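#dry-run=false #mode=assembly
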Amino acid sequence: MQKISGDNFISEIVQKHNNDPQQLTSILHDVQEASGQNYVAEPWARQIAELLQTPISHVYEVLTFYSMFSTEPKGKVLIEICNSAPCRFNRSHELLAWCKEELGIGVGEITPDGEFGIAYTSCVGACDVSPSLKIGEDVYGNLNRSKLTQLINSFRENRPELREPLICQN
Amino acid sequence: MSTQKELVNLTIDGIAVTVPAGTTILEAARRANVNIPTLCDHPDLGRRAVCRLCVVECNGGRKLKAACANEVWEGANVVTDNPRIRQIRRTILELILADHPKDCLSCVRNGSCELQALAERFGIRKHVFKVGIPAQEPLLHSGTLVRQMSKCVKCGRCIAACREVQQVHAINSVSRSLSYALGTPYNTMLGDGTCTFCGRCASVCPVGAIYENDQVNDIFDILADPENHVVVQTAPAVRVALGEAFGLPAGSISTGKMVAALKRLGFSKVFDTDFAADLTIMEEGHEFLDRLKNDGKLPMITSCCPGWINFAETFFPDLLDHLSSCKSPQQMFGAVAKTYYAEKLGIAREKIRVVSIMPCTAKKFERARPEMKENNDPDVDFVLTTRELARMLKAAGIEMNNLPEAEFDRIMGESTGAGVIFGASGGVMEAALRTVYEVVTGAELPSLDFEDLRGYHGVKYSKVELPGRTVKLAVVNSLGNARALMQDLRAGKTDVDFIEVMACPGGCVGGAGQPYGSSAKVKERIKGIYIEDKNLPLRKSHQNSEVQTLYREFLGEPLSERAHHLLHTHYHPRHK
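#status=ok
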């Protein structure tokens, strides 16, 4: 995830999408990713609306309709724990409890340094390795206590080589 | 290509019906005198099909179709009512009622609520689903509109009106599923967004979620204080709609009875906004001639409609110099009442209270504008909508229909037909032409009726021949139509000299403060307006003797310095 590159990052992203109002969701995705906090702040949304010459009411409607978008900071590393039935059966609540132990925060909260956040997600299609969770674009499965600690530490220490995300095969 | 639509034959509850192709099942059923229940549907708004109350069975299939959104087809066999359908509709209604605050007794829509009417129709006697209802206080926006979203049934009519008809885009849906709501961007107050306070949202809301700021009790209070000299003015569109609240058909003319009822309420003087409309024509007509003669900014655009002014200030701040500098008739009336009238009767300005009866919600916003005050004292103190006046009369026990007719008081109660037609789309333009033509040519108009400019239709063009010049005219109603015309103007693609804009479909008669109803009623009110115009002995603003006296004794001539100070205003770009 890249950090906000400056004041112009909104107009750069909008330009990348040819100032096309039809690409609003893609623009919001890119802005959310560039935010470093997994969200789209109000001034950014207003700037997007102005650049696309589309009403802010429309941008806000899209932003709040899709659960993947957030209007509030969600943390730099957002841990999304699968909340669907198969993961539940395989004790996803323990996964959540371990995350809480590691980070000292609950669902919908972020750590004081803004580094980590926890959220629920719907099924990510990794039921075979449940309980699973998702961080950014990557899904992690077959998790136990020590694997989870290792995963969180890999983000704390910025050591991607310690992570074992699932490889999508299709 | 034939314009004649193909006809479709079908049966509805066993009744054979033939309707044009493209008719909805709902509309076809109405023609067969079958009243399918609806909640989200509104005849003037697009198809949304969100409430599902209008579901029907077709061709014996189990799958239900929404009658409001599905068109008829040849040979269809529609069943609109059987035990299964009734039970499904009942469950839908009970689900809608589940989290609706059932405080009908203290609701502004008690007696006019569409949800209440459905509960009555379905014989709801107890509430099956018991869920917590979040307490939510009503929020007053800019002293004009109240939103109490705990009452919202999420039909989406308000958004359709704001977005599709008016193209103002002030409100939107928020989130989805359980937390789905109708609101504003970032929950801001309406006054901080693009809202024009036209009130279309309030006029289509089926329940008490959006409504006008009810000031009936404020008026009772000021009337009860003997220190006050309270005068009232009534807009032209009110007299052809007020009767609806007392059981008369739309378009019935209640002028005399309305005046009598207002006198019974205890107003010191009952005046006519039409007087001020005639005054507006004197100023606006001369302003237009001045612009024509001295290469002023053209096209000139009318400025009577406060919803339109808010819209122009928000979306077309670069074109504000096209707007006539004339205040609206309501504000001209207030300014004259608190100066000329006060002086003439020897009453101190601060003792005079000016109340307006308007078909409009935006008038409440307009009266509070800083430009409409003298030393911080507003020229107009209160604005009541037609609906509020009806409530006030009922509260006071006044049986308006049975009163003998009374006449407006002098010296601001005379009206010409030109003043009356201000209430309908095209009327301001027509009134202006009746005066401008005679001022310029010195001759009488061959015909006073500018039929091209009249009617509910949203965009109308015409022209009139003045010596040495053809003046091209455009009349639009609804802000969506205004937006299209203004975009053309901005792009240099218009070829007109004079534009009239009214924010509400059909003009002020279709105002958001009028008794609830659809365009069918508005069209009847328009007819009423032109009947009233025809019946008046004087039909041109410059013939109004009280206006003539006002100029002779107080203002001097149109566009004089004093007229400028009292009767003209200026506009500010609004940040959106």
